Amino acid sequence: MRLLATTVIALRALRRNKLRSALTALGIIIGVGAVITMVSIGNGAKAQVEAQVASLGRNVIAILPGSATTSGARGGLGSSNTLTVDDADAIRREIAGAVAVSPEVRQGWQVLGNGLNWRTSVYGVSPDYTTIRAWPLAEGRLFTDYEVRGTAKVCIIGATIAKQLFPDVDPVGQTVRINNVPFQVLGILTSKGFNFFGQDQDDCILMPYTSFMSRVFRWRNTVNSIIVEAPSAVAMPRLQQEITDLLQQRRGGREPDFNVRNQLELAEAATATSRTMTALLGAIAGVSLLVGGIGIMNIMLVSVTERTREIGIRLAIGAHDRDIRVQFLIEAMILSMLGGAMGVLLGVGLAELLSRLNGWPTQVSTSSVTLAVGFSAFVGIAFGFYPAHKAAKLDPIDALRFE
Fold it and tell me: How far is it, in rounded angstroms, from Cα 298 to Cα 292?
């Protein structure tokens, strides 16, 4: 009952100065709203990057060429060109945990089709490629292992190629000429859009790697990379090590001319910047919360001075120090919690507004809302404690004499 009565007294005190209470809470409202908005922008950017990394495939391990040294000059990563189809076959045979394996050769070409032309990226891959990349067909069918063995002149195309070369006709069954070799279009890939490198993933043509190496790029005997799908994210480090050991064994213990990377490393590198940005934006917005807390302390100190006689009367008629302390703490907490609640609405509204007006990706997380509201409550207690303590320590006689 004592706590309830103290709360009622605190509410009455706040209601007597409605405008001042509203202006005091405004600092917390702006602070909480700013924190939620800024963190939502950062989380949205992080989620977008993670989605783009996920679009590269599921649990992907990539084997890339290493560095070649010629006459003492080191060519850098990717210059060795020593990965082969045999390496991919060895991984498929000997690495038990590999769900799917595909060599990858690629080259940019001007392609012709339907009386139109377009420069695009041509990939030679295995049928496992679309499984690893989690890239289903929107129409038609994928080439088979039989067609890979037979170096068939078939291909599947991305949505951008379908739009640029076959705007008015169904591409399936049509012919595209690549390096003056005709290839029949078997299917169209679903659209994936741009990746986080800014590349249009749909601007591509996929064909059997055997057809690429024997019909299109006839003097090519190495591959650009090998991609492997692991059974789970947990198994990726183990599989990565097994692949490294196998390829090193195949090279007779020579200095490694390859690099094995997994998708977790790529995702970590890609999201590091967005995480830093989120933390930075949250910290900057948190300053406004701190300023709001200082505003609460300032107003509460003013309130203690204004209500010195009231405090003296309450102490004189039997109120305890803790009653006075709790009353002022409750006032500070009400201001901060009310400001926090309204700040949540402001922050969520601003995040949604920015998303609609500017097309920015925003993501309001429960953790950011909980953190902002919790911090606003902490601000109320922390910055309200000193004024409450000062009020509780007033001498009743001095307080009654105060003019």
Answer: 10
Residue 79 to residue 43: CA distance in whole angstroms: 37
Question: What is the reported pTM?
Answer: 0.63
Phi, psi values for residue 67, rounded to 5° = -105, 135
Q: What is the pLDDT of residues 71-98, one digit of tens each?
A: 444 555 555 678 889 999 999 999 888 8
